[in-house]
């Protein structure tokens, strides 16, 4: 089916890709075809297939960052920490990120990486993170608060636990 024909009839605001290991170049192509997309839910990304874009295509695809309206991103499984950087580049106006599972990565490491990336890239849009951490308890939240304070992050953080999810919100 021709995607441009579909888009002349209706706009797509929410997209869920249940396919595992979505290639980054396929995701770039999809997002660039959906200028009104607000919510993106993907099972997982694949960083292992070489991205075969020539420099002209890369510039064209990266320039779509400024028009991408994706605000909410749901990633079911994060296999590599670089996936966050890719998502942040593809969705520069992302306000909310939810990750259900960090495959073979320490959750604290992932959180620290994301917070530092936001701080050093001066990202002013992302304000809410959610991670599924079934083992989290009050002690976990205390440790995370200490870690955030040690990193000297300039934001006023609130950490909340709701069922198996930890929410990190700041202004």
Question: What do you see in this structure?
Answer:
By secondary structure, this protein is of the alpha/beta class. It has one domain (about 5-170). It has six helices and nine strands; from the N terminus they run H-E-E-H-E-E-H-E-H-E-H-E-H-E-E. The strands form two sheets. Strands 1-3-5-6-7-9-8 form a seven-stranded mixed sheet, covered by helices on one side. Strands 2-4 form a two-stranded parallel ribbon. A hairpin with a 2-residue loop joins strand 8 and strand 9. About 20% of the residues are buried. The model has no long low-confidence stretch (mean pLDDT about 85).
Order of helices and strands: HEEHEEHEHEHEHEE
Strand content: 25-35%
Count of discrete alpha- or pi-helical segments spanning 4 or more residues: 6
Rg from C-alpha positions? Answer: 17 Å
Mean pLDDT: 84
Query: How far from one another are the termini?
Result: 43 Å
**Helix percent band:** 25-40%
- What's the arrangement of strands in the largest beta sheet? 1-3-5-6-7-9-8
Major β-sheet profile = 7 strands, mixed
Low-pLDDT segments, ≥5 res: none
Question: Structural class of the helices, strands and pairings?
Answer: alpha/beta
* Count of spatially separate domains: 1
What's the total count of β strands?
A: 9
Shape: globular
């Amino acid at each position: 089916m021709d995607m441009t024909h579909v888009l002349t009839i209706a706009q797509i605001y929410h997209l869920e890709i249940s396919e595992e290991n979505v290639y980054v170049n396929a995701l770039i192509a999809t997002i660039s075809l959906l200028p009104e997309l607000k919510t993106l839910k993907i099972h997982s990304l694949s960083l292992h297939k070489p991205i075969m874009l020539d420099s002209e295509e890369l510039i064209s695809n990266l320039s779509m960052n400024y028009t991408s309206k994706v605000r909410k991103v749901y990633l079911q499984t994060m296999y590599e920490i670089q996936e966050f950087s890719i998502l942040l580049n593809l969705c520069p106006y992302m306000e909310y990120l939810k990750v259900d599972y960090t495959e073979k990565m320490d959750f604290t490491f992932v959180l620290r990486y994301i917070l530092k990336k936001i701080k050093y890239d001066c990202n002013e849009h992302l304000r809410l993170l959610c991670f599924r951490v079934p083992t989290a308890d009050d002690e976990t939240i205390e440790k995370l608060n200490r870690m955030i304070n040690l990193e000297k992050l300039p934001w006023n953080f609130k950490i909340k636990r709701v069922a198996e999810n930890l929410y990190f919100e700041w202004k």
